[in-house]
Write a structure and sequence with these properties.
Layout (H helix, E strand, L loop, with lengths): L1 H8 L6 H30 L3 H8 L2 H10 L5 H14 L1 H37 L9 H11 L1 H18 L4 H4 L1 H20 L1 H17 L2 H6 L12 H33 L5 H36 L3 H28 L1 H9 L6 H15 L2 H16 L4 H27 L1 H10 L12 H24 L4 H29 L8 H25 L3 H10 L17
Helix pairs in contact: 2-10, 2-14, 3-14, 4-6, 4-8, 4-13, 5-6, 5-8, 6-7, 6-8, 6-13, 7-11, 8-11, 10-11, 13-19, 14-15, 14-17, 14-18, 15-17, 15-18, 15-22, 16-17, 16-23, 17-21, 18-21, 19-20, 19-21, 22-23
Length: 559
Protein backbone atom coordinates (compact mmCIF):
# COMPACT_ATOMS: atom_id res chain seq x y z
CA UNK A 1 0.00 0.00 0.00
CA UNK A 2 2.77 2.43 0.93
CA UNK A 3 4.69 1.50 -2.23
CA UNK A 4 1.59 2.13 -4.32
CA UNK A 5 1.18 5.54 -2.68
CA UNK A 6 4.71 6.65 -3.56
CA UNK A 7 4.30 5.26 -7.09
CA UNK A 8 1.30 7.52 -7.60
CA UNK A 9 3.30 10.44 -6.24
CA UNK A 10 5.90 10.03 -9.02
CA UNK A 11 3.68 9.96 -12.11
CA UNK A 12 4.22 12.29 -15.08
CA UNK A 13 1.91 14.84 -16.58
CA UNK A 14 -0.04 14.16 -19.80
CA UNK A 15 -2.40 16.65 -21.39
CA UNK A 16 -3.40 20.22 -20.50
CA UNK A 17 -7.03 19.60 -19.54
CA UNK A 18 -6.24 16.38 -17.68
CA UNK A 19 -3.57 18.17 -15.65
CA UNK A 20 -5.80 21.15 -15.03
CA UNK A 21 -8.74 18.99 -13.92
CA UNK A 22 -6.60 16.91 -11.59
CA UNK A 23 -5.05 20.05 -10.16
CA UNK A 24 -8.56 21.45 -9.79
CA UNK A 25 -9.49 18.33 -7.82
CA UNK A 26 -6.69 18.89 -5.32
CA UNK A 27 -7.45 22.61 -5.25
CA UNK A 28 -11.04 21.70 -4.47
CA UNK A 29 -9.95 19.50 -1.56
CA UNK A 30 -7.82 22.31 -0.22
CA UNK A 31 -10.65 24.81 -0.68
CA UNK A 32 -13.13 22.50 1.09
CA UNK A 33 -10.78 22.39 4.06
CA UNK A 34 -10.39 26.15 3.78
CA UNK A 35 -14.16 26.55 3.95
CA UNK A 36 -14.31 24.24 6.97
CA UNK A 37 -11.63 26.42 8.54
CA UNK A 38 -13.63 29.59 7.84
CA UNK A 39 -16.84 27.91 8.98
CA UNK A 40 -15.25 27.17 12.35
CA UNK A 41 -13.96 30.73 12.60
CA UNK A 42 -17.35 32.22 11.71
CA UNK A 43 -19.19 29.81 14.04
CA UNK A 44 -16.98 30.59 17.02
CA UNK A 45 -16.52 34.33 16.59
CA UNK A 46 -18.98 35.77 14.09
CA UNK A 47 -18.09 38.98 12.28
CA UNK A 48 -16.64 40.76 15.30
CA UNK A 49 -13.57 41.87 17.23
CA UNK A 50 -11.73 38.54 17.49
CA UNK A 51 -12.05 37.68 13.82
CA UNK A 52 -11.08 41.22 12.81
CA UNK A 53 -7.88 40.88 14.85
CA UNK A 54 -7.16 37.41 13.45
CA UNK A 55 -7.43 38.51 9.80
CA UNK A 56 -5.61 41.79 10.46
CA UNK A 57 -2.68 39.91 12.00
CA UNK A 58 -1.99 38.35 8.56
CA UNK A 59 -1.52 41.66 6.78
CA UNK A 60 2.15 42.39 7.53
CA UNK A 61 3.39 38.74 7.33
CA UNK A 62 1.46 38.32 4.08
CA UNK A 63 3.15 41.39 2.62
CA UNK A 64 6.56 40.00 3.58
CA UNK A 65 5.65 36.70 1.95
CA UNK A 66 4.61 38.13 -1.41
CA UNK A 67 7.46 40.62 -1.51
CA UNK A 68 10.32 38.35 -0.40
CA UNK A 69 9.28 34.71 -0.67
CA UNK A 70 8.09 35.16 -4.27
CA UNK A 71 11.77 35.50 -5.18
CA UNK A 72 12.09 31.72 -4.80
CA UNK A 73 8.85 30.74 -6.53
CA UNK A 74 8.89 27.88 -9.02
CA UNK A 75 7.91 30.17 -11.90
CA UNK A 76 11.18 32.07 -11.35
CA UNK A 77 13.62 29.33 -10.31
CA UNK A 78 12.47 26.37 -12.38
CA UNK A 79 14.07 27.51 -15.68
CA UNK A 80 17.36 28.22 -13.82
CA UNK A 81 17.31 24.81 -12.10
CA UNK A 82 16.67 22.96 -15.35
CA UNK A 83 19.44 24.85 -17.14
CA UNK A 84 22.01 24.35 -14.36
CA UNK A 85 21.36 20.65 -13.77
CA UNK A 86 21.26 19.86 -17.48
CA UNK A 87 24.76 21.31 -17.85
CA UNK A 88 26.43 20.20 -14.62
CA UNK A 89 24.89 18.69 -11.48
CA UNK A 90 27.62 20.12 -9.25
CA UNK A 91 26.99 23.62 -10.56
CA UNK A 92 23.28 22.99 -10.12
CA UNK A 93 23.79 22.11 -6.45
CA UNK A 94 25.96 25.19 -5.91
CA UNK A 95 23.23 27.31 -7.49
CA UNK A 96 20.61 25.80 -5.18
CA UNK A 97 22.81 26.43 -2.15
CA UNK A 98 23.48 30.05 -3.17
CA UNK A 99 19.85 30.95 -3.84
CA UNK A 100 18.61 29.21 -0.70
CA UNK A 101 21.25 30.86 1.49
CA UNK A 102 20.60 34.34 0.09
CA UNK A 103 16.85 33.96 0.45
CA UNK A 104 16.97 32.48 3.94
CA UNK A 105 19.28 35.18 5.29
CA UNK A 106 17.19 37.92 3.67
CA UNK A 107 13.82 36.79 4.99
CA UNK A 108 15.21 36.14 8.48
CA UNK A 109 16.75 39.62 8.66
CA UNK A 110 13.57 41.29 7.37
CA UNK A 111 11.37 39.31 9.79
CA UNK A 112 13.55 40.30 12.75
CA UNK A 113 13.43 43.98 11.77
CA UNK A 114 9.65 43.85 11.29
CA UNK A 115 9.27 42.07 14.65
CA UNK A 116 10.58 45.14 16.44
CA UNK A 117 8.76 47.62 14.17
CA UNK A 118 5.37 45.87 14.40
CA UNK A 119 3.73 48.31 16.88
CA UNK A 120 4.55 51.31 14.68
CA UNK A 121 3.69 49.52 11.42
CA UNK A 122 0.26 48.49 12.68
CA UNK A 123 -0.58 52.03 13.77
CA UNK A 124 0.37 53.28 10.30
CA UNK A 125 -1.10 50.48 8.21
CA UNK A 126 -4.19 49.61 10.27
CA UNK A 127 -5.27 52.99 11.68
CA UNK A 128 -8.60 51.67 12.96
CA UNK A 129 -6.76 49.85 15.75
CA UNK A 130 -4.79 52.84 17.09
CA UNK A 131 -7.17 53.44 20.01
CA UNK A 132 -8.42 49.87 20.27
CA UNK A 133 -8.08 47.89 23.48
CA UNK A 134 -7.21 44.93 21.23
CA UNK A 135 -4.03 46.56 19.88
CA UNK A 136 -1.61 44.58 22.14
CA UNK A 137 -3.20 41.28 21.06
CA UNK A 138 -2.94 42.29 17.40
CA UNK A 139 0.74 43.18 17.81
CA UNK A 140 1.59 39.85 19.49
CA UNK A 141 -0.44 37.81 16.98
CA UNK A 142 1.31 39.57 14.08
CA UNK A 143 4.70 38.82 15.60
CA UNK A 144 3.88 35.12 15.94
CA UNK A 145 2.72 34.99 12.32
CA UNK A 146 6.09 36.34 11.13
CA UNK A 147 7.27 32.71 11.25
CA UNK A 148 4.79 31.82 8.54
CA UNK A 149 6.43 33.58 5.55
CA UNK A 150 9.75 31.95 6.52
CA UNK A 151 8.30 28.42 6.54
CA UNK A 152 6.15 28.90 3.44
CA UNK A 153 9.01 30.61 1.60
CA UNK A 154 11.26 27.59 2.23
CA UNK A 155 8.39 25.36 1.13
CA UNK A 156 8.03 27.29 -2.14
CA UNK A 157 11.77 26.88 -2.69
CA UNK A 158 11.45 23.11 -2.18
CA UNK A 159 8.57 23.01 -4.67
CA UNK A 160 10.89 24.33 -7.39
CA UNK A 161 13.14 21.30 -6.82
CA UNK A 162 10.26 18.81 -6.85
CA UNK A 163 8.86 20.29 -10.04
CA UNK A 164 12.31 20.16 -11.66
CA UNK A 165 12.24 16.41 -11.04
CA UNK A 166 8.64 16.22 -12.30
CA UNK A 167 7.43 14.93 -8.94
CA UNK A 168 4.52 17.20 -8.22
CA UNK A 169 1.84 15.25 -6.41
CA UNK A 170 3.52 15.29 -3.02
CA UNK A 171 3.42 19.09 -3.04
CA UNK A 172 -0.24 19.02 -4.01
CA UNK A 173 -1.15 17.93 -0.51
CA UNK A 174 0.83 20.80 1.06
CA UNK A 175 -2.07 23.31 0.96
CA UNK A 176 -4.32 20.61 2.40
CA UNK A 177 -1.95 20.09 5.32
CA UNK A 178 -1.70 23.86 5.76
CA UNK A 179 -5.44 24.12 6.30
CA UNK A 180 -5.44 21.07 8.57
CA UNK A 181 -2.89 22.82 10.78
CA UNK A 182 -5.11 25.89 11.05
CA UNK A 183 -8.15 23.74 11.86
CA UNK A 184 -6.15 22.04 14.61
CA UNK A 185 -5.41 25.50 16.01
CA UNK A 186 -9.10 26.46 16.01
CA UNK A 187 -10.37 23.24 17.58
CA UNK A 188 -7.61 22.33 20.02
CA UNK A 189 -5.34 25.34 20.64
CA UNK A 190 -7.83 28.21 20.80
CA UNK A 191 -9.71 26.82 23.84
CA UNK A 192 -6.38 26.69 25.72
CA UNK A 193 -4.44 29.71 24.47
CA UNK A 194 -7.13 31.95 22.96
CA UNK A 195 -6.15 34.10 19.95
CA UNK A 196 -2.53 33.00 20.25
CA UNK A 197 -3.69 29.42 19.81
CA UNK A 198 -5.34 30.40 16.52
CA UNK A 199 -2.19 31.94 15.06
CA UNK A 200 -0.06 29.06 16.41
CA UNK A 201 -2.27 26.77 14.32
CA UNK A 202 -1.28 28.81 11.25
CA UNK A 203 2.39 28.27 12.09
CA UNK A 204 1.75 24.54 12.52
CA UNK A 205 0.04 24.43 9.12
CA UNK A 206 2.96 26.29 7.53
CA UNK A 207 5.36 23.78 9.06
CA UNK A 208 3.35 20.86 7.63
CA UNK A 209 3.29 22.61 4.23
CA UNK A 210 7.09 22.58 4.25
CA UNK A 211 7.95 19.32 6.02
CA UNK A 212 5.95 17.05 3.69
CA UNK A 213 8.40 17.79 0.85
CA UNK A 214 11.62 17.15 2.75
CA UNK A 215 11.74 13.31 2.35
CA UNK A 216 11.83 13.58 -1.44
CA UNK A 217 14.34 16.46 -1.37
CA UNK A 218 16.67 14.30 0.73
CA UNK A 219 16.10 11.30 -1.51
CA UNK A 220 16.97 13.33 -4.62
CA UNK A 221 20.31 14.42 -3.04
CA UNK A 222 19.70 18.09 -3.78
CA UNK A 223 18.84 19.30 -0.31
CA UNK A 224 19.98 22.94 -0.04
CA UNK A 225 22.77 23.84 2.38
CA UNK A 226 23.16 27.15 4.16
CA UNK A 227 26.49 28.66 3.05
CA UNK A 228 28.20 32.03 3.21
CA UNK A 229 30.14 31.78 -0.06
CA UNK A 230 27.16 32.88 -2.13
CA UNK A 231 27.42 33.36 -5.90
CA UNK A 232 26.16 36.94 -5.92
CA UNK A 233 26.48 37.20 -9.69
CA UNK A 234 23.93 34.45 -10.14
CA UNK A 235 21.71 35.91 -7.42
CA UNK A 236 21.71 39.17 -9.38
CA UNK A 237 20.44 37.32 -12.48
CA UNK A 238 17.67 35.67 -10.47
CA UNK A 239 16.67 38.99 -8.91
CA UNK A 240 16.55 40.64 -12.31
CA UNK A 241 13.81 38.20 -13.31
CA UNK A 242 12.09 37.80 -9.94
CA UNK A 243 11.94 41.47 -8.94
CA UNK A 244 9.29 42.46 -11.53
CA UNK A 245 7.25 39.39 -10.53
CA UNK A 246 7.58 40.32 -6.88
CA UNK A 247 6.48 43.88 -7.56
CA UNK A 248 3.58 42.57 -9.65
CA UNK A 249 2.34 40.44 -6.76
CA UNK A 250 3.06 43.13 -4.20
CA UNK A 251 1.03 45.76 -6.06
CA UNK A 252 -2.15 43.71 -5.71
CA UNK A 253 -1.37 42.87 -2.10
CA UNK A 254 -0.72 46.52 -1.32
CA UNK A 255 -4.06 47.43 -2.88
CA UNK A 256 -5.81 44.78 -0.77
CA UNK A 257 -3.85 46.00 2.23
CA UNK A 258 -5.23 49.50 1.66
CA UNK A 259 -8.79 48.15 1.47
CA UNK A 260 -8.28 46.33 4.79
CA UNK A 261 -6.95 49.58 6.27
CA UNK A 262 -10.16 51.31 5.17
CA UNK A 263 -12.22 48.43 6.61
CA UNK A 264 -10.47 48.92 9.97
CA UNK A 265 -11.99 52.42 10.09
CA UNK A 266 -15.49 51.09 9.44
CA UNK A 267 -17.92 49.26 11.70
CA UNK A 268 -16.49 46.42 13.84
CA UNK A 269 -16.72 43.23 11.82
CA UNK A 270 -16.06 44.88 8.44
CA UNK A 271 -12.62 43.24 8.15
CA UNK A 272 -14.19 39.86 8.94
CA UNK A 273 -16.97 40.29 6.36
CA UNK A 274 -14.47 41.44 3.72
CA UNK A 275 -12.07 38.56 4.45
CA UNK A 276 -14.73 35.83 4.59
CA UNK A 277 -16.25 37.01 1.30
CA UNK A 278 -12.91 37.20 -0.53
CA UNK A 279 -12.05 33.72 0.77
CA UNK A 280 -15.31 32.41 -0.70
CA UNK A 281 -14.73 34.01 -4.09
CA UNK A 282 -11.23 32.51 -4.12
CA UNK A 283 -12.77 29.03 -4.33
CA UNK A 284 -13.76 29.26 -8.01
CA UNK A 285 -10.63 31.31 -8.69
CA UNK A 286 -8.38 28.56 -7.30
CA UNK A 287 -10.26 25.74 -8.98
CA UNK A 288 -10.44 27.37 -12.41
CA UNK A 289 -7.94 30.19 -12.85
CA UNK A 290 -5.05 28.84 -10.80
CA UNK A 291 -5.51 25.30 -12.17
CA UNK A 292 -5.36 26.28 -15.85
CA UNK A 293 -2.66 28.92 -15.49
CA UNK A 294 -0.45 26.49 -13.54
CA UNK A 295 -1.08 23.53 -15.82
CA UNK A 296 -0.21 25.51 -18.95
CA UNK A 297 2.98 27.19 -17.71
CA UNK A 298 5.52 24.42 -18.52
CA UNK A 299 3.93 23.89 -21.94
CA UNK A 300 4.05 27.58 -22.78
CA UNK A 301 7.69 27.73 -21.68
CA UNK A 302 8.49 24.78 -23.93
CA UNK A 303 6.78 26.29 -26.99
CA UNK A 304 8.44 29.65 -26.41
CA UNK A 305 11.90 28.07 -26.22
CA UNK A 306 11.11 26.19 -29.45
CA UNK A 307 9.90 29.47 -31.03
CA UNK A 308 6.59 27.76 -31.84
CA UNK A 309 4.24 30.76 -31.78
CA UNK A 310 1.35 28.87 -33.36
CA UNK A 311 1.22 26.21 -30.64
CA UNK A 312 1.85 28.85 -27.97
CA UNK A 313 -1.18 30.81 -29.14
CA UNK A 314 -3.24 27.64 -29.52
CA UNK A 315 -2.61 26.62 -25.91
CA UNK A 316 -3.51 30.10 -24.69
CA UNK A 317 -6.75 30.09 -26.66
CA UNK A 318 -7.69 26.64 -25.33
CA UNK A 319 -7.03 27.67 -21.74
CA UNK A 320 -8.81 31.02 -22.05
CA UNK A 321 -11.85 29.39 -23.65
CA UNK A 322 -12.21 26.91 -20.80
CA UNK A 323 -11.59 29.54 -18.13
CA UNK A 324 -14.41 31.63 -19.63
CA UNK A 325 -16.60 28.56 -20.09
CA UNK A 326 -16.40 27.66 -16.38
CA UNK A 327 -16.12 31.12 -14.83
CA UNK A 328 -19.21 32.79 -16.29
CA UNK A 329 -21.84 30.26 -15.09
CA UNK A 330 -20.18 29.98 -11.69
CA UNK A 331 -20.26 33.76 -11.36
CA UNK A 332 -23.98 33.87 -12.17
CA UNK A 333 -24.74 31.02 -9.76
CA UNK A 334 -22.79 32.69 -6.96
CA UNK A 335 -24.71 35.95 -7.47
CA UNK A 336 -28.15 34.29 -7.54
CA UNK A 337 -27.42 31.84 -4.72
CA UNK A 338 -25.21 34.13 -2.65
CA UNK A 339 -27.39 34.07 0.47
CA UNK A 340 -27.75 30.27 0.33
CA UNK A 341 -24.01 29.80 -0.18
CA UNK A 342 -22.98 32.09 2.67
CA UNK A 343 -25.65 30.81 5.06
CA UNK A 344 -24.79 27.17 4.34
CA UNK A 345 -21.04 27.63 4.73
CA UNK A 346 -20.79 30.24 7.48
CA UNK A 347 -24.23 30.56 9.02
CA UNK A 348 -24.29 29.05 12.51
CA UNK A 349 -23.22 29.86 16.05
CA UNK A 350 -22.15 33.49 16.39
CA UNK A 351 -22.47 34.18 12.65
CA UNK A 352 -26.03 35.56 12.57
CA UNK A 353 -28.41 36.47 9.74
CA UNK A 354 -27.16 40.08 9.64
CA UNK A 355 -23.60 38.81 9.09
CA UNK A 356 -24.93 36.46 6.40
CA UNK A 357 -26.74 39.18 4.46
CA UNK A 358 -23.77 41.53 4.48
CA UNK A 359 -21.20 38.87 3.58
CA UNK A 360 -23.46 37.63 0.76
CA UNK A 361 -23.69 41.15 -0.66
CA UNK A 362 -19.90 41.61 -0.54
CA UNK A 363 -19.45 38.18 -2.16
CA UNK A 364 -21.77 39.11 -5.04
CA UNK A 365 -19.59 42.11 -5.89
CA UNK A 366 -16.37 40.12 -5.60
CA UNK A 367 -17.43 37.28 -7.91
CA UNK A 368 -18.11 39.72 -10.75
CA UNK A 369 -14.34 39.81 -11.23
CA UNK A 370 -13.62 36.05 -10.91
CA UNK A 371 -13.35 35.51 -14.65
CA UNK A 372 -11.09 38.56 -14.90
CA UNK A 373 -8.86 37.36 -12.06
CA UNK A 374 -8.56 33.94 -13.70
CA UNK A 375 -7.66 35.39 -17.11
CA UNK A 376 -5.11 37.75 -15.56
CA UNK A 377 -3.37 34.74 -14.00
CA UNK A 378 -3.27 33.13 -17.45
CA UNK A 379 -1.90 36.23 -19.21
CA UNK A 380 0.74 36.76 -16.55
CA UNK A 381 1.91 33.14 -16.86
CA UNK A 382 2.15 33.57 -20.63
CA UNK A 383 4.36 36.63 -20.29
CA UNK A 384 6.48 34.90 -17.64
CA UNK A 385 6.93 31.93 -19.98
CA UNK A 386 8.36 34.40 -22.50
CA UNK A 387 10.55 36.01 -19.85
CA UNK A 388 8.68 39.30 -20.30
CA UNK A 389 7.80 40.62 -16.88
CA UNK A 390 7.52 44.36 -17.47
CA UNK A 391 4.05 44.39 -19.05
CA UNK A 392 2.34 42.50 -16.19
CA UNK A 393 4.22 44.71 -13.74
CA UNK A 394 3.05 48.01 -15.20
CA UNK A 395 -0.52 46.79 -15.69
CA UNK A 396 -0.76 45.42 -12.16
CA UNK A 397 0.65 48.59 -10.64
CA UNK A 398 -1.88 50.65 -12.60
CA UNK A 399 -4.80 48.44 -11.59
CA UNK A 400 -3.57 48.49 -7.98
CA UNK A 401 -3.59 52.29 -8.04
CA UNK A 402 -7.12 52.24 -9.48
CA UNK A 403 -8.26 49.96 -6.63
CA UNK A 404 -6.73 52.32 -4.06
CA UNK A 405 -8.20 55.46 -5.65
CA UNK A 406 -11.63 53.89 -6.10
CA UNK A 407 -11.58 52.47 -2.57
CA UNK A 408 -10.86 55.88 -1.07
CA UNK A 409 -13.22 57.73 -3.42
CA UNK A 410 -16.13 55.31 -2.99
CA UNK A 411 -15.73 55.38 0.81
CA UNK A 412 -15.97 59.17 0.80
CA UNK A 413 -18.91 59.08 -1.63
CA UNK A 414 -20.78 56.50 0.44
CA UNK A 415 -20.97 58.83 3.42
CA UNK A 416 -21.24 62.09 1.45
CA UNK A 417 -23.96 61.06 -1.02
CA UNK A 418 -26.89 59.10 0.48
CA UNK A 419 -28.18 58.30 -3.02
CA UNK A 420 -25.01 56.32 -3.79
CA UNK A 421 -25.25 54.45 -0.49
CA UNK A 422 -28.95 53.69 -1.01
CA UNK A 423 -28.30 52.47 -4.56
CA UNK A 424 -25.75 49.89 -3.37
CA UNK A 425 -27.90 48.82 -0.43
CA UNK A 426 -31.05 48.42 -2.51
CA UNK A 427 -29.27 46.67 -5.38
CA UNK A 428 -27.87 44.03 -3.02
CA UNK A 429 -30.93 43.83 -0.74
CA UNK A 430 -29.24 45.08 2.44
CA UNK A 431 -31.19 48.29 2.98
CA UNK A 432 -31.28 49.12 6.68
CA UNK A 433 -28.38 46.80 7.45
CA UNK A 434 -25.61 48.17 9.66
CA UNK A 435 -22.05 48.31 8.28
CA UNK A 436 -22.97 48.48 4.58
CA UNK A 437 -20.11 50.89 3.90
CA UNK A 438 -17.93 47.78 3.45
CA UNK A 439 -19.68 47.23 0.08
CA UNK A 440 -17.52 49.90 -1.55
CA UNK A 441 -14.34 47.88 -0.95
CA UNK A 442 -15.14 44.86 -3.19
CA UNK A 443 -16.59 47.31 -5.71
CA UNK A 444 -13.24 49.10 -5.92
CA UNK A 445 -11.43 45.75 -6.10
CA UNK A 446 -13.59 44.41 -8.95
CA UNK A 447 -13.27 47.61 -10.98
CA UNK A 448 -9.47 47.43 -10.69
CA UNK A 449 -9.42 43.75 -11.68
CA UNK A 450 -11.67 44.30 -14.70
CA UNK A 451 -9.38 47.11 -15.89
CA UNK A 452 -6.43 44.78 -15.34
CA UNK A 453 -8.14 42.10 -17.44
CA UNK A 454 -8.92 44.48 -20.30
CA UNK A 455 -5.36 45.81 -20.48
CA UNK A 456 -3.78 42.34 -20.38
CA UNK A 457 -6.21 41.06 -23.01
CA UNK A 458 -5.62 44.09 -25.26
CA UNK A 459 -1.83 43.75 -25.00
CA UNK A 460 -1.90 40.01 -25.65
CA UNK A 461 -4.15 40.43 -28.70
CA UNK A 462 -1.65 42.94 -30.09
CA UNK A 463 1.20 40.49 -29.52
CA UNK A 464 -0.75 37.46 -30.77
CA UNK A 465 -3.44 38.51 -33.28
CA UNK A 466 -6.29 36.01 -33.50
CA UNK A 467 -6.50 35.30 -29.77
CA UNK A 468 -9.74 37.18 -29.10
CA UNK A 469 -12.14 35.83 -31.73
CA UNK A 470 -12.53 32.22 -30.50
CA UNK A 471 -12.49 33.31 -26.84
CA UNK A 472 -15.22 35.90 -27.42
CA UNK A 473 -17.30 33.24 -29.21
CA UNK A 474 -17.08 31.07 -26.11
CA UNK A 475 -17.87 34.07 -23.91
CA UNK A 476 -21.03 34.79 -25.91
CA UNK A 477 -22.30 31.20 -25.69
CA UNK A 478 -21.39 30.77 -22.03
CA UNK A 479 -22.88 34.13 -21.04
CA UNK A 480 -26.11 33.48 -22.95
CA UNK A 481 -26.59 30.07 -21.34
CA UNK A 482 -25.61 31.44 -17.92
CA UNK A 483 -28.12 34.31 -17.97
CA UNK A 484 -30.94 31.89 -18.73
CA UNK A 485 -29.54 29.52 -16.08
CA UNK A 486 -29.53 32.35 -13.55
CA UNK A 487 -33.16 33.27 -14.28
CA UNK A 488 -34.29 29.65 -14.04
CA UNK A 489 -32.35 29.26 -10.78
CA UNK A 490 -34.00 32.38 -9.37
CA UNK A 491 -37.49 31.07 -10.25
CA UNK A 492 -36.57 27.67 -8.81
CA UNK A 493 -35.61 29.29 -5.50
CA UNK A 494 -39.16 30.60 -5.19
CA UNK A 495 -40.58 27.21 -6.07
CA UNK A 496 -38.41 25.25 -3.63
CA UNK A 497 -39.12 27.79 -0.90
CA UNK A 498 -42.51 26.07 -0.60
CA UNK A 499 -40.81 22.71 0.04
CA UNK A 500 -37.90 23.89 2.19
CA UNK A 501 -38.92 26.69 4.58
CA UNK A 502 -35.85 28.69 5.57
CA UNK A 503 -35.98 27.87 9.27
CA UNK A 504 -33.01 25.49 9.32
CA UNK A 505 -29.58 25.56 7.70
CA UNK A 506 -30.21 22.22 5.98
CA UNK A 507 -33.30 23.66 4.29
CA UNK A 508 -31.30 26.67 3.10
CA UNK A 509 -28.76 24.29 1.58
CA UNK A 510 -31.38 22.06 -0.06
CA UNK A 511 -33.23 25.03 -1.51
CA UNK A 512 -30.05 26.42 -3.09
CA UNK A 513 -28.79 22.99 -4.15
CA UNK A 514 -31.91 21.91 -6.04
CA UNK A 515 -32.45 25.36 -7.56
CA UNK A 516 -28.84 25.32 -8.75
CA UNK A 517 -29.16 21.83 -10.19
CA UNK A 518 -32.25 22.84 -12.19
CA UNK A 519 -30.43 25.89 -13.52
CA UNK A 520 -27.30 23.89 -14.43
CA UNK A 521 -29.38 21.29 -16.33
CA UNK A 522 -31.01 24.05 -18.34
CA UNK A 523 -27.59 25.61 -19.09
CA UNK A 524 -26.21 22.27 -20.28
CA UNK A 525 -29.19 21.74 -22.58
CA UNK A 526 -28.73 25.20 -24.08
CA UNK A 527 -25.00 24.65 -24.63
CA UNK A 528 -25.65 21.31 -26.30
CA UNK A 529 -28.24 22.93 -28.60
CA UNK A 530 -25.70 25.63 -29.42
CA UNK A 531 -23.20 22.85 -30.24
CA UNK A 532 -20.80 24.38 -27.79
CA UNK A 533 -17.24 23.17 -28.34
CA UNK A 534 -16.13 23.39 -24.71
CA UNK A 535 -18.86 21.14 -23.35
CA UNK A 536 -17.84 18.45 -25.85
CA UNK A 537 -14.20 18.81 -24.76
CA UNK A 538 -15.21 18.58 -21.10
CA UNK A 539 -17.13 15.38 -21.81
CA UNK A 540 -14.14 13.90 -23.66
CA UNK A 541 -11.71 14.86 -20.89
CA UNK A 542 -13.90 13.37 -18.17
CA UNK A 543 -13.87 10.09 -20.08
CA UNK A 544 -10.06 10.04 -19.93
CA UNK A 545 -8.30 8.73 -16.84
CA UNK A 546 -7.15 12.23 -15.96
CA UNK A 547 -6.69 11.20 -12.32
CA UNK A 548 -3.67 9.20 -13.50
CA UNK A 549 -2.02 12.37 -14.80
CA UNK A 550 0.47 14.22 -12.70
CA UNK A 551 -0.19 17.81 -11.79
CA UNK A 552 1.61 21.10 -11.90
CA UNK A 553 1.33 22.70 -8.52
CA UNK A 554 0.78 26.44 -8.16
CA UNK A 555 3.05 28.51 -5.97
CA UNK A 556 1.78 29.42 -2.54
CA UNK A 557 1.24 33.14 -3.13
CA UNK A 558 -0.47 34.25 0.09
CA UNK A 559 -0.51 33.06 3.70
Amino acid sequence: MVKRFFTIMNQEIRGLHEAAYLLAFFALLSQVLGLIRDKLLAYNFGAGDTLDIYYSAFRIPDLIFVSVASVVSASVLLPFFIEKFNNDEDKGQKFIDSVFSAFFILIIVISIIVFFLTPWLIKILLPGFINSANLPELINATRILLLSPILLGVSNFFSSITQMHKRFLIYAISPILYNIGIIVGIIFLYPIFGLYGLVTGVIFGSFLHMIVQIPFIFKSHVFPHLKLNIDWGMIKKVMKISLPRTLTLSSNQLASFFLIALASLMKVGSISVFSLAINLQSVPLSIIGVSYSSAIFPTLSKFFVEKNRKEFLGQMIDSARHIVFWSVPITILFIVLRAQIVRTIYGAGNFDWADTRLTAAVLAIFVVSVMGQSLVLLFVRAYYAEGRTKKPLFINILSGLVIVICGYGFTKAFFAFPVFAYFLQDLLKVTGQAGTSVLVLPLAYSIGVLLNTYLHWHMFEKDYPGFSKPVIATLFQSFSASVIMGYVTFLSLRLFNNFFPLTKSINVFLQGFFAGIVGIIVAIIILVLLKNREIREVWTTLHHKFWKSNIIVPDQETL
